[in-house]
Amino acid sequence: MSYSREIPLGEETDVIVCGGGPAGIGAAAGAARAGARVTLLEQYGFLGGMATAGLVLPFGDTQPAIARELFDRLEARGAANGWNYDPETFKLEANELLLEAGVELRFHTAFCDVMMSGNAVKGVVALSKSGLEALPCRVVIDCTADGDVAASAGAEFSKGRSDGRMQPVTLMFRMGGIDLERYRNYEQSDDRMEKALTKARDAGDVSPFTCSVMGFVPVPGGREVVINLSNFPGIDGTNARDLSRAEIETRREVFRITAALRKYVPGFEQAYLIDTAAHLGVRETRQIIGEYVLTAEDIFEAKKFEDGVARNIFEIDIHPLDGIGRASHTAKEVFRAKEPWVDIPYRCLVPRKIDNILVAGRCFSATHEAMGAARRMGPCMDMGHAAGAAAGLAARQNIKPREISAAAVQQELQRQNASG
Ligand SMILES: Cc1cc2nc3c(=O)[nH]c(=O)nc-3n(C[C@H](O)[C@H](O)[C@H](O)COP(=O)(O)OP(=O)(O)OC[C@H]3O[C@@H](n4cnc5c(N)ncnc54)[C@H](O)[C@@H]3O)c2cc1C
User: Fold this and answer.
1) Cα(66)–Cα(99) distance, integer angstroms
2) For ligand 1, which residues put their CB under 6 angstroms from it?
3) Total number of domains constituting the chain
4) What is the best residue among 56, 84, 358, 382 to mutate for testing ligand 1's pocket, by most ligand atoms within 8 Å of CB?
5) Domain of 290: which CATH number?
6) In which domain, by residue range, is 190 found?
7) How far is Cα 392 from Cα 37, in angstroms, rounded to an integer?
8) pLDDT, tens digit (0-9, with 9 covering 90-100), for 354-381
9) Contact call for residues 298 and 335 (beta carbons, < 8 A)
């Protein structure tokens, strides 16, 4: 059996950004501010990716210009406290920031295929309630986190550790009705949550995968918290069957955990579940292989590159691949040093062999270990900003992104940051 159909061809634009998470927000802003016509495709009805749909916070460890701008807007609304924030206000202000930059936001629209001419991407096919549409453009930026666009275009990629195993997934959730004072005071130890969970695990009330990964993060301005407590292993976030199984199992686990918290943790007696994240928290899938692959050694040496266009200032944070126990944090000392960042080279955003496409965010070109550091939302937004600036310049000059010099990208970023 075969299948074919004619689909409508949209008007050409300069840059299409696929995915509206931290990287996509940075990319769309960077490209629009570089003077390009930009359309952003996002499968949900709001921006933020893991920052909102994933209920992941705090926003990690960086000071990229776009993130600072967004957080200034959140602070002005009383919706941020340091790098903690209210996810609902994040959605609102991310919209406003991109609309002001002139970006066309296409929500409820998923990337589903690429249009190619030889090894060059010529546009994307999008799926929405309007049906399938072919959308031509000069440059695509893949900010889907999973490298969906680059993989469809035939880019090479790796997945996980050398044995193919990837970090576990987590369904984040939000609870209210907690007596935070009582919780903080019942034991003077950062391990209080882990101790309570050990009791719950020993009693069989929660699965062995439940551990105090990062505890819980109070959402500013409220008495509710977002909670990150369960690692579910063996899931490939690019496989719909795996994702479905994980959504089912982690949802069951959230209900076991909330009951256990009420039973074992002082301060949680009256606590209730507000919601679970709209999207399962996937930590790792494809790393698109670019002109350079960032390595653990680069992180350990806090390496600076001539073509550095983004920065990571977080240590390697790898959650146990079998889901049991706590995350290992290595290279902490490096980031306490004098120049506490590793540069992310422009080459990490340029996939090998495929033209007219850049990648940014979680799927950038890195080893399993190096992505374990730079997967934080700050560096992802920073990479997005750089990819956006490069794509904007390439589209305006009608050349390939790999022909843009890193110096030109750095200069454009400086110009945007100075005028931002
Ligand atoms: C449980 C968990 C806890 C974490 N904790 C922290 C933390 O405390 N601090 C921190 O800084 N980072 C944390 N991280 C890491 C961080 O959240 C991610 O690595 C980061 O959000 C990646 O940014 P991104 O923009 O590349 O991808 P995402 O945030 O995943 O955004 C991708 C966007 O693309 C959209 N998309 C995907 N595919 C398509 C498609 N085909 N068509 C259209 N749209 C599509 C998605 O809907 C989404 O909006 C955590 C991650 C997890 C899973």
Assistant:
1) 14
2) 18-24, 41-44, 49-50, 53-54, 56, 58-60, 110-111, 143-145, 148, 170, 172, 228, 281-283, 361-362, 375-378, 380
3) 2
4) 56
5) 3.50.50.60
6) 173-276
7) 8
8) 999 999 999 999 999 999 989 999 999 9
9) no
